[in-house]
Amino acid sequence: MDFSSKLLEQAVDEMSQLPGIGKRTALRLVLHLLKQPEAQTEQLAAALTKLRTEIKLCSNCFNISDTELCEICSNPNRISEIVCVVEDIRDVMAIENTGQYRGHYHVLGGKISPMDGIGPSQLSIKPLVEKVKAGKVEEIIFALSSTLEGDTTNFYIFKQLEGTGIKTSTIARGISVGDELEYADEVTLGRSITNRVPFENSMKN
Amino acid sequence: MDFSSKLLEQAVDEMSQLPGIGKRTALRLVLHLLKQPEAQTEQLAAALTKLRTEIKLCSNCFNISDTELCEICSNPNRISEIVCVVEDIRDVMAIENTGQYRGHYHVLGGKISPMDGIGPSQLSIKPLVEKVKAGKVEEIIFALSSTLEGDTTNFYIFKQLEGTGIKTSTIARGISVGDELEYADEVTLGRSITNRVPFENSMKN
């Protein structure tokens, strides 16, 4: 792309570094900003800068937070003895939206993925193991994506926790509610048969 | 969406004001920025702010430019007597990419669209008419989108230019190169028959 303006080119270049945004989309977004009042661009730039410089990670669960201890960890009504291990804040938001979980979280910040150069030391696995060894946790629920990386991460943490006698579980894998059986893949269907639940339980929700 | 952080919520809110970016995408983009070095966010914010505050419109053609007169208008090799009227900088870039045009441009900054509250006074139509009346232009080429708004804008400008005796033309409408005839719509096909060109001309490119 040939730009008539260096300023425009720079803005488009920076914008197109975002995932899923190519040069054309970046140009569309930047031209949109140019048509809007100057305040909108200022607010966007300020919000991004402020977020990047002032955001904290909760010292207990490593969730994104404005304060030293996040809202969930500082809520006395939550059960701190049950810890749900998730990848990032989006998973926390998804589980919170169900309204079914009253325990704490532990945000790893990613999954073990040698292909992307992410090893266990880059994730907050050590603090989790220490929390368990300090005897503060009764149950760990693994809620990572059901992918190779997710399973590897689960297994790595499971191995680290060996000998602590802690209760571990993973969220149930099975056919999505509302899904047709014939379109389910074999692995999911297989697991959903192996891990079948008493019929009474299925009526609880 | 329930956010655990006000800073995060603000950044997502601002980001989701951009066209085609919903809350979920905004969250994904913002979380991506959080994982990248702080410098990337700073550069993005700085580029946007700089663009919005320092960008100029070329005083002759109203194209986006870093200087008082844009690169095209200040190029002595371009034919200033032919002016191609376009909607915005993207159209300038598209026509420049063809390498077929050596004249000047006039960027309107939009199309007349009562539905969006855009009237002739919000576009740079007056300076174009003045330029023509000053006798500096020999031919006007209308290159707006072939929509109701585009045609309305063309016609409005055409009416404003009445009596000046200026030569006006529009870019050719017809079947796209490489397109199957049977899938073309009737209006396009009809126009391409009415405005047929001598066969020798079609072999020039």
Polypeptide structure, described:
- The structure is a homodimer of 205-residue chains.
- Chain A contains 8 helices and 6 strands.
- Chain A is α/β, with parallel strands linked by helices and 205 residues long.
- In chain A, the strands form 2 sheets. The first copy, chain A, has a 4-stranded parallel sheet. Chain A has a two-stranded antiparallel sheet with strand order 1-2.
- Among the domains of chain A are: 6-54, Helicase, Ruva Protein, domain 3 (Orthogonal Bundle); 78-171, Dna Topoisomerase Vi A Subunit, Chain: A, domain 2 (3-Layer(aba) Sandwich), CATH 3.40.1360.
- The mean pLDDT of chain A is 89.
- In chain A, strand 3 (79-86), helix 4 (89-98) and strand 4 (103-107) form a beta-alpha-beta unit.
- At the A-B interface, helix 1, helix 2, helix 3, strand 2 and helix 4 of A face helix 1, helix 2, helix 3, strand 2 and helix 4 of B.
Notable features of this structure?
homodimer; 205 residues; alpha/beta; Dna Topoisomerase Vi A Subunit, Chain: A, domain 2; two-stranded antiparallel ribbon; 6 strands; globular
